[in-house]
Amino acid sequence: MSSTEFQRPTALQDFPIVVRIPIQWGDLDAYGHVNNVVYMKWFEHVRCLYGERVGVEVVSRDSGTGAIVASVQCKYLRQLNFPGDVAVGVRVCRVSIGSVSLECLIVDEATGVPAAQATCDVVLYNFAQQKPVPVPDAIREAVEKLEGKSFPV
Nearest CA to 47 among 114, 125, 105? Predict the structure, then answer.
């Protein structure tokens, strides 16, 4: 997956993390369009990039605490085909004491038209203790800095 510089589609102007991803031949299903599971992989990719940027351990190694998806909802807006590229963006829309809600958007780079929109709730989880933990102040502050706004609890 490539994150090289490119012209950000208008629909993604307010998303702090945007990545360009080429559509692979293997992303297609029997109907000849990108399989719905691939959209989820793209959303996962930008969520991980966001998490790394704000200090969340994507693979929990040091602190024993990482992020897990509590829920995800996707609205598929249009088919995508090979060849082509998509731009995928992510932004935070809510931070609570124990979770963060994200909005993700996939845009067909050739047309600038959104192809799918997802929302998901992510919980920070201590794997050693097997329980969720509150969102640390340092992560909340990093999110607010990246987003350029505050998120009241």
Answer: 105
User: What is the β-pairing status of strands 131-132 and 114-126?
Assistant: antiparallel
Taking residues 16-26, report their average pLDDT: 97
| pTM to 2 decimal places | 0.91
CA distance 99 to 78: 30
User: What would the mean pLDDT of 3-11 be, rounded to a whole number?
Assistant: 77
More confident: 69 or 152:
69
Written as six digits, the tokens of 32 are 């000849």
Is residue 8 exposed (0-12), middle (13-18) or buried (19+ Cβ within 10 Å)? middle
Start-to-end Cα distance in the chain: 35
- Token readout for 90 is 């992510």
Q: Where does the chain have alpha helices with state H?
A: 36-54, 137-147
Q: What are 82-136's pLDDT values in tens digits?
A: 999 999 999 999 999 999 999 999 999 999 999 999 999 999 998 888 899 999 9
